[in-house]
Design brief:
eight-stranded antiparallel beta sheet; alpha+beta; 8 strands; 7 helices; about 220 residues; single chain
């Protein structure tokens, strides 16, 4: 059994609604927390977004392929339950776990350039066959593939999408370099959150990642 990390980018976006959300200046796609392919051929996506929900409502109202949606906001975090008629790209991607013996690890991370980063468990031969069915307008990059170890593989899977974003920002800024090249305040300014929030998240991140690696008990 193999563990693959993939980055997907679609020319013109994965779906008009998804592309419009990605382009909305005051709204950021963070992750796709869940997805379901219904018997009638339609698809339900549960987005995790951040920012002003106004652009999301405008985008979803304007798209004729959006059959219905609901928004829930807690602070800057916005969750969008979107029921849509899929195009060929969304139809193919959401059906991959049904057509092939693959498990897509959730959430699927949304990238700032409009792409997606997904982790998938299956056999190497299955990955190759499944990727061949993806429309040519989607570029698939294989970041890594290795043997799957359920005990220690990918400790970041224990993190929430928000925690992963803060961890990525901390790593990029050199927070874990020796000597350390940034501070909670600088990371907070980059993400437009409070320094205390960064510190609390990093404490939980460190606890959860070390717990997954050492096999201890996570008390965070």
């Amino acid at each position: 059994m193999r563990y693959a990390e993939l980055t997907l980018r679609a020319s013109g976006g994965f779906h008009p609604a998804d592309h419009a959300i990605a382009e909305a200046g005051e709204l950021e796609r963070v992750a796709i927390s869940q997805f379901s392919h219904l018997d009638d051929g339609t698809v339900v996506l549960l987005y995790q977004l951040r920012g002003d929900p106004g652009p999301a409502e405008a985008v979803l109202d304007a798209d004729p392929d959006v059959l219905g949606y609901g928004l829930s906001q807690a602070g800057a975090e916005v969750h969008a339950h979107v029921h849509l008629a899929p195009n060929a790209i969304i139809r193919t991607l959401t059906r991959l776990p049904q057509r092939y013996p693959l498990v897509v690890e959730l959430p699927v991370e949304c990238l700032r350039d409009g792409g997606l980063r997904a982790s998938v468990v299956g056999e190497r031969e299955t990955f190759a066959v499944a990727v061949e069915t993806i429309p040519e307008t989607v570029t698939v990059e294989l970041a890594s593939i290795r043997s799957y170890d359920p005990g220690t593989d990918r400790p970041a899977a224990a993190l929430t999408a928000r925690q992963r974003e803060i961890l990525d920002a901390a790593l990029a800024a050199g927070y874990y370099d020796v000597p350390r090249r940034t501070t909670h305040t600088e990371i907070a300014a980059e993400l437009d959150i409070a320094p205390a929030t960064v510190g609390e998240h990093l404490r939980k991140i460190e606890s959860r990642v070390l717990t997954r690696v050492t096999g201890g008990v996570d008390t965070a």
